[in-house]
Amino acid sequence: MTILYFAWLKERVGTGEEQLPLPAGVTTVGDLIEHLKARSPELEAVFGADARVLTAVNQDMATPDTPVTDSDEVAFFPPMTGG
């Protein structure tokens, strides 16, 4: 799976993209976030309780219940405001 990080998430994680085999037991976006949080203090901070992070799977907005597969592109990004 391809994981993309945008804006301040990219700065905190230290990369804009990574390849990750689908971890055992990960079937949803929520599972993936929990897996990522356990990988490093930076990811724990990015996805912490007060973090406002949006997710897209294959360029479609996603929720924690959205299924993920090994061939998906999962993007994490902050909420955007327009003007």
From the structure above, extract its key features.
83 residues, alpha+beta, Ubiquitin-like (UB roll), 25% helix, globular
> How many distinct beta strands?
5
State the separation between the terminal residues, measured CA to CA. Answer: 34 Å
* Secondary-structure element string: EHEHHEEE
Counting DSSP H or I runs of 4 or more residues, the number of helices is: 3
What is Rg? 12 Å
Strand order of the largest sheet: 2-1-5-3-4
CATH class: Alpha Beta
Q: What general outline do the C-alpha atoms trace?
A: globular
Largest sheet: 5 strands, mixed
Q: From the 3D coordinates, which CATH architecture would you assign?
A: Roll
Helical fraction: 25-40%
Any idea of the CATH topology?
Ubiquitin-like (UB roll)
- Tell me the CATH superfamily: Beta-grasp domain
Report the mean per-residue pLDDT as an integer: 92
Structural class: alpha+beta
Give the number of domains. 1
**How would you describe the oligomerization state of the chains in this entry?**
single chain
Low-confidence stretches: none
